[in-house]
Each structure stands twice: as C-alpha cells, then as structure tokens.
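ok so dumb question maybe but i'm new to this and my supervisor (M.) told me to 'just get the structure for FH2 domain-containing protein' and walked off. so i did the thing. is this what she meant?? sequence i used:
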Amino acid sequence: MFYMNNINMPVDSPALNHKPGSGGEATIVMTIITQYMQRIQSIREATKAIRSSPGVREILEYILVFGNYLNCSTRTLATAPAYGFKLQTLDLITETKSSVDRSRSLLHYLVDVIMTKEKPGGNHSGPSKSEILATALAIRPLLISNRSQHQLTGSNSDASVLENIKMPFDFDRLLQTIERATSVSLETCVAEVAEIEKGMELCRNELQLRNQGGLATSPATKTIQQFIQQKGPEVSGLKEELRKTQQQYNECVEYFGENPKMLESSNQLFGTFVRFLKNFKQCQLDNLMAQRKSIEEELRQQILAKQQQRMMQQQQQQQQNGNGSQSDHQMQQGQTTSDNQKVKEKRLLKQDEVYNGALEDILSGLKNEPFRRADAVRRSQRRRLANMATNEMQDNV
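this is what came out, is it supposed to look like this??
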C-alpha cells in the first residue's frame, strides 16, 4: 500500500503556469510516472538533436580539417590523414593556446573562420563592419552593467551578455535542448524505472496472494486490482520508452565513434557538447569584442589623420595669409618711404637747382671774384705805364 500511495502522489512541477482568466496561480501536478517519462523524453530529444544536427556535423568537419593540417608536419608517408577523432578533442581545442597571444585558443580561430564563411542567408562574405559595431553596441550596455554589478557585489556574470550572442547553424536551439537533458542522467532513469517496475511486481504478487487467500472480495484487494489495471500500462509504456531511449543513446554514441560502455552516463556525452557550445559562444563574444576594438582603433586613426590633415591645411592657410599680409605691409612701407622721400626731395632741392633771383647771383659772383670799380681797368693801365716809364729812366741813367 505504501508503494501505491507513493506512485499516486502528485509531484509539483518545476515550472509554474499562470492560466489566463483564472485570477490566480495554478500549479501543474503530475504523477511520478509522468515525471519520469518527461526525464526520459528529454534525454531522447537531446540524443536525437545531437545526431541530426547539421551544425554539429559541420563543426566536426572543420575540426578534422584543422587537426590534419596541424599534424601534417609530424605525419610520415606511411601514415594517412585522420578520418575521425574522439569527442574529448572538443575540450582539448579550448586548451590549445596561441604562441603569440595566450588569451586566444584554437577555438577562437575556428570560430572566426566559421563566422566568416557561414553567414546566415547563404552569404559567405562574413559580417560587415556595420554589423559588428551594431552588435557590439547592443551588448555594450550589458557589459557596463555587469561590470558595475561586479564592482558592487563582487560577482562577474556574463549570462545576460551571452544571451545576446547568436550562434551559427542550430547551436542555440541545440544548447537549450541539451541543457535540459543534463539535469537528469540516463542511469538515474534506469534505476527509477527499475524501482517502479519492482513495486508493480510486488503489487501483482500481493494481489495473487489475496486471491488465493480468499480475500478477493475485500476492499483492499479491489483497490490493488484497480491500481494495477490503471498504472500497469503506464509502467509498461515507461519501460518501453526507456528501452528506446537507451537504444537511441547507444546508437548516437556509436555514431560519434565512441564506445557505449565507456559513455554509459548520458551526462558525459551531453556535458561535452554543452561545454563546447558554451565555449564556442564565449569565443564568439571574444572575437566580436576584438573586432570591435580593431574597428574602433581604425576609425580613431582615420579621425586623427583627418584632424591632422585639417590642422595642416589651417596652418598652410594661416601661413599664406601671413605671407600675403607681410607682403602687403612691405609694399605699404615701401610706398610710404617713397612718398616721404619725394616730400623730402620737394622740400630740399639741390644747390644747382635752386634759383633765388639777381641778388643771389651778385652775392655768389662776389664769392667767386672780387669786386672791381668801373674805372679799375684804366687805373691798372696807368700804373703799368708808370712802372714801365720808371724802369726805362733807370736804365738810361
């Protein structure tokens, strides 16, 4: 009876739905069988999503090509290129760091190549600068708010930022599907179904003992019989669902070249892909921010170049204006000097150009030649004649 009470006991769902118009909050209740069925179905959906995902197939091809290229130097002529790799390689590529920048891994370069070649819509030209800046500007407020929250609370959560990053292919939907499956484990589901089947078998044995003991008409016997009739098909359906899920999981593990016995826990397979997809998304964010910084630096250099060019043009214009004003000033000075010289020459003429009248001529003549009386010639002649006569008389004596 304890088993019957447990299997019929309602279990609160982790999700709460609000019915419109009910005016209150209605909690969805389910039996343990329904809850176990949902767990098994989540594992089955995740297994199917991983195996049928075109993005997973594409990314594994990229990794294989990269691995063969990196190992070509160590491969000899006797060894052929690799045709596959283990799933643990998905964790190793995040640990393969660049020799130039230790903050960048092989996954960063892989994401860069994929995002450049596999742009949505069939365009393989990669995101443009405007698209990179638009996406970077969209997540920039989230980065600032997270940085402020980290300064206040000491926590650094990039969940809100990563939610705005859209991965290529079907990775976003695939990540959500796998994350739901990682909350449960296939081994746990097997143990739970085995426990339910064991309890149902105990109920059947108890019903058989009651019928053999003459208690077939008792109310307890009728309750057990009714319970087996109602829950027996549900337990059988749960068991069948688990069997199909185990089969699909093993086929998925073999599809990726792994041994099902080595990956009996579904968390090993799903955890590997969850870590890879989250690292892929983080590398995509890192590349986006690096591209944004590169574009901003390029724009800053262009702005500085334009500013320097504008300053040089202004300096040349000022220099030209300065030379023009200087030449005008020199011309004005030369004109002023010429005018002053002309004025000075007009005021002070040369001596030979000055004519002040007859009086000035007389005075200048007196300076050059002494003044003579009008009879000065006769007197000099008489004196000369007297002197000549005196000389003759002396000679006669």
